[in-house]
Amino acid sequence: MGPSIDAKKLRDYVAETNSYTLYEHDGLVELRFSPEFPEAMGHLPEGQSVEHIMLGKEENGRISFYRFITRSAFGETSSEMSDEDDPIMEWLKYI
Description:
Nuclear Transport Factor 2, Chain: A; single chain; mainly beta; globular
C-alpha cells in the first residue's frame, strides 16, 4: 500500500480546509481537492482549475492511498502509489 496518514488527523484537516472534501464508504476513501494557494496557481493550465483525487482504504485507524488522479483542461492522468514514501504525497507529512 502507498502513503498513509492517521484517519482522525486527515478528517480534522479536511474539516478545517475549505478546498478539501473527503468521501468515505465501507472503508474506501476518496479525497478531493483543488490547489488554490499562490504557489500552485502558476502551474495551472491556462489559469483553469485542477482537481486532484486520491483513492485509498482505511484500516486500523489509518488511511492508505493507492491512486492519485489529476483532472484538468488537459484531461485526466492517474498514478498508482505503492511506496509509503511516494514523492507525490510528501505533503501528507505536514498535516
